[in-house]
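Hi F.,

I've been meaning to write this up properly since the lab meeting, where we talked about keeping a consistent format for the predictions we share between groups. The idea is simple: the sequence comes first, exactly as it goes in, then the structure tokens exactly as they come out, then a line or two of notes. No screenshots and no reformatting. I'm using this chain as the first example so we have something concrete to point to.
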Amino acid sequence: MTLRGCGTALVTPFHQDGSIDESALRNLVSWQVDSGIDFLIPCGTTGETPTLSHDEWLHVIDITIEVAAGRVPIVAGATSNSTHDAVEKAKEVAARPGVNVILTASPYYNKPTQEGQYQHFRAIAEAVEKPLVLYNVPGRTSVNIEPSTLARLAEVPNILGVKEASGNITQIAEVLNAVPGTFLVFSGDDAITLPVIALGGVGIISVASNEIPAEMAAMTRAALDNDWVAARTLHRKYLALMQANFIESNPLPVKAVLAMMGKIEENYRLPLVPMRRDTRSKLQKIVADAGLISKPAGPSAEAAEFFVYENWLAGPHKIVVHRGNCGQCNHGKGRPAGHDANHARWHGPYSTLAEARQVAHDMPNILIRSECKCI
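Output, unedited:
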């Protein structure tokens, strides 16, 4: 088993009622493998794992194993801020034959010292035979695994490597100087994949590859093969998308993009909520510019249709006028996350904006009337 290249930190698709969308997950995994991704990571941060029950966590991992069918390695997420619980989770997932590696993050909330983190990871490693990749993401855990601590942990036989998501290039350089050459260092941020590989890293555990698996895999392989012209060309083309995936909390943007692409329904579990309208509009433009969805027609398009969206989810009726090719409208078939057919409906199409505005003006019992930014 070789762990190298681009691995996808998979989203977990949900139905509108909050249940796992197993069909969408299967299709997503199949598409990832067919697109040439190098390995898969179910149940990481991007998978909204803190909101999954114990059984759901295992079910997502099992589905990923089943669909991948041995074609790519599976790196299963297993993290807890209780060392005892982290050990038990690692044992449970290690017992699954299809799991090749376990990804485990620093304990969150407790804010352990460097020695505390060392003891935590060592306890997990000594409890299982399968290799571990550690996950350093101080922006979420509030603790950083320092290079000297990683150097100590690299001496533990089955600690294979680290996903470095500190975003600190200087620290990553120090890590690569501190650990043995056999210790694997993966970028945890898409945008800095190339500099991490240039310093000696072996790849990326990626969010963007949910959306562009073939392109991220090709970019990473090009860099690893020292074809920097090809790697930089792909990096420049998709950098805006890589950055836009964090325009709001991950995985809000990446799930929104996958929904725009028709891969999943855009549903989250609390405390995550749908993106703000202004950031969604920015994201939609970036995604269209990257060629992942069709660009909306300009305002002067003669064949444009218009729709009126009525919803009463929060009680009073509200209406919004949309252009038919708006990403939120989708010619009267779109539905914002959290809205259901029992509390919302589309009116139209109307051939002109003036007609749609007149319908909106004449509609009775409406508390708030507004227009989408697409108008």
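Notes:
The chain has a mean pLDDT of 93.
The longest helix spans residues 228-244.

If this format works for you, I'll send the rest the same way.

G.
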